[in-house]
Design brief:
heterodimer; A: 270 residues; globular; B: 295 residues; mainly alpha; disordered N terminus
Chain lengths: 270, 295
């Protein structure tokens, strides 16, 4: 009992520390005259939300984000599922080097290769196209997706596929009809993880997209910074909340359906 | 890697590796290609300003980097940032949270988990703004310190590298917490109970029994944390722009500064390659440790 109280107290202290920056966000979003100071607004107002709640400031960027990240996440998950199958099922001396290369690639600072990528995109006329940017985002998230997917797939016993193999099923049928349904939670985790990471990615769309009407929310958030150092903090906070809501909701849904902990931990145990 | 039963896999040998193709093509086109181009650029003196006259300069950029006090400053800051925020902060705090959560009551567990994970799920730019607001002179941290009777500081000016390190702990701890929660769930109950019967205290049990059992999770988590932290850019950029001066300028920020703001593409990519090298060294060390421990 004493142990439980001690653990509770320690966790509550950590939770308070983690919540402190979030409190500013919530309070500032309903404050007419928000500053960087955490103040309780009097009276609270919905004005900041209604100020940004329009096509130009919120809807278009959000739809752009959705198309960009949704498309990219779909490509990533399909490619990762396909790639994970042979890596998990077949033996070869090349599997380990391949996986290690993939793992090294996850540590690539994407910022570093944006210079050549920009050059490449100009050359092949993919610059300022949504699908080009989505493909690059997909590639940048792919290494970790393959790694996760392979670990989830390893947890599905091979014995279940042997029946299908004896019946002469192709690898594609085995993968789609036996393996993937069994690891549906894992596929969900990979999809949501990729989507969340892409949704928050600022630098890639900032470099590769030029037209204002293609910009996702992660880039348009900078329009809240005035040209002369004047920042409308209330609107910035309101927009940040709107922009963050989809990924938070998505996370909550997946975490609830798959049980606690997002099941991510199980997949990276190595 | 899965064990027996692999002999019965479909036999058409070359074709069975076909599923690897889409991912491999994508990776080669969009990551492999640019990396090779990176290597080439790093050996040139390309600049954004002033056209045409790009020439091959061999290892000059690297030589220049090692003689550049700003580069050495960035290396030191990157090491501080990585060790403080990733190896010590995210990793230890994540483990502590996971351990405490097993003892805590359900509502506290859910509340703490939700807050910590919210910090992780928020987009990087939003997190950057939040922590900028938090550490500012008029921000929440000083308000709290003031209540406690402690002196206020301009944190982003006096201790910028620690401020961004704490920001990274705030943002990244959830990942370690999730990994360790799952790892602890997988520890057999009997192992811990046996140690308890033998009279081992909580800390000793953790150190001598639990940690060795989950060492693989520790290794993987450390590696992923470290590599992710090495390439953190948006968070630092949003909070300090690498400043004041260059006192929070880690390698990614330094590289961006050189390549895009000073237009020294060649020099910037050389630094990017060195950063990749540092990542590779970290990854190799962890993998080596993992392999030796499983032997």
């Amino acid at each position: 009992m004493r142990r439980r109280l001690a653990a509770d107290a320690a966790l509550l202290a950590v939770a308070a520390a983690f919540a402190a920056p979030l409190v500013w966000l919530v309070l500032a979003s309903v404050d007419r005259e928000a500053t960087l100071r955490t103040d309780v607004p009097s009276p609270p107002t919905g004005g900041n939300f209604s100020a940004v709640w329009n096509e130009e400031m919120t809807f278009t960027p959000m739809v752009n984000s959705l198309l960009l990240c949704g498309g990219a996440a779909a490509v990533t998950v399909c490619c990762a599922a396909l790639a994970a199958y042979p890596l998990s099922r077949y033996r070869s001396r090349l599997v380990r080097p391949y996986l290690l290369t993939v793992l090294f690639t996850t540590c690539l600072p994407i910022t570093a290769i944006m210079i050549p990528v920009y050059g490449l995109f100009v050359q092949v006329e993919l610059i300022d196209t949504r699908y080009g940017t989505a493909l690059f985002l997909a590639a940048s998230e792919l290494p970790f997706a393959i790694w996760l997917m392979k670990n989830f797939m390893d947890a599905v016993p091979v014995s279940l596929e042997e029946a299908a193999w004896t019946d002469g099923a192709s690898w594609f049928r085995t993968l789609t009809a036996v393996v993937l349904p069994l690891m549906a939670p894992g596929v969900g985790v990979v999809t949501v993880y990729c989507f969340i990471m892409m949704w928050g990615n600022f630098f890639v769309p900032f470099m590769l997209l030029l037209s204002p009407d293609l910009m996702p929310a992660s880039v348009t958030i900078f329009t809240f910074f005035g040209n002369y150092g004047s920042v409308v903090y209330g609107q910035l906070a309101a927009f940040s909340i709107l922009y963050s809501t989809p990924v938070v909701l998505l996370y909550v849904i997946v975490a609830r359906r798959l049980g606690g902990g997002f099941a991510l931990g199980g997949a990276v145990k190595g | 890697m899965t064990g027996a039963g692999l002999r019965t896999a479909p036999r058409r040998r070359p074709l069975r590796w076909l599923p690897l193709a889409p991912a491999t093509v994508l990776l080669l086109l969009f990551l492999g290609g640019p990396i090779c181009y990176c290597v080439y650029l790093a050996l040139t003196d390309m600049r954004l300003t002033g056209s045409s006259s790009t020439s091959f300069v061999g290892l000059d950029n690297f030589r220049r980097a090692f003689g550049d006090p700003d580069f050495r400053n960035a290396v030191v800051l990157t090491l501080v940032f990585t060790i403080v925020s990733s190896v010590i902060g995210q990793n230890t705090l994540g483990l502590a949270l996971a351990v405490l959560m097993r003892r805590a009551s359900r509502p506290v567990r859910i509340l703490t988990g939700a807050v910590v994970i919210a910090a992780w799920v928020l987009p990087e730019i939003v997190a950057g703004f939040l922590l900028y607001a938090f550490f500012r002179r008029e921000g929440t941290l000083n308000a709290v310190l003031d209540q406690l009777g402690l002196p206020a500081q301009n944190w982003l000016f006096t201790l910028p590298i620690l401020a961004v390190s704490f920001a990274n702990v705030w943002r990244g701890t959830a990942f370690s917490m999730l990994v360790y929660s799952a790892a602890l769930d997988a520890v057999p109950k009997e192992v811990e109970e046996a140690a308890e019967v033998d009279g081992a205290s909580g800390v000793r049990r953790l150190w001598y029994v639990t940690l060795p059992v989950i060492r693989r999770a520790i290794g993987t988590n450390l590696m992923l944390n470290t590599l992710q932290t090495l390439s953190v850019f948006g968070l630092i950029w949003a909070m300090t722009r690498g400043g004041p001066g260059n006192r929070s300028q880690t390698l990614p920020v330094f590289m961006y500064d050189q390549a895009f703001l000073k237009s020294l593409i060649g020099y910037g990519t050389a630094i990017a390659l060195l950063l990749l090298l540092v990542g590779a060294v970290f990854a190799t060390v962890y993998l080596r440790l993992l392999r030796e421990e499983t032997r």
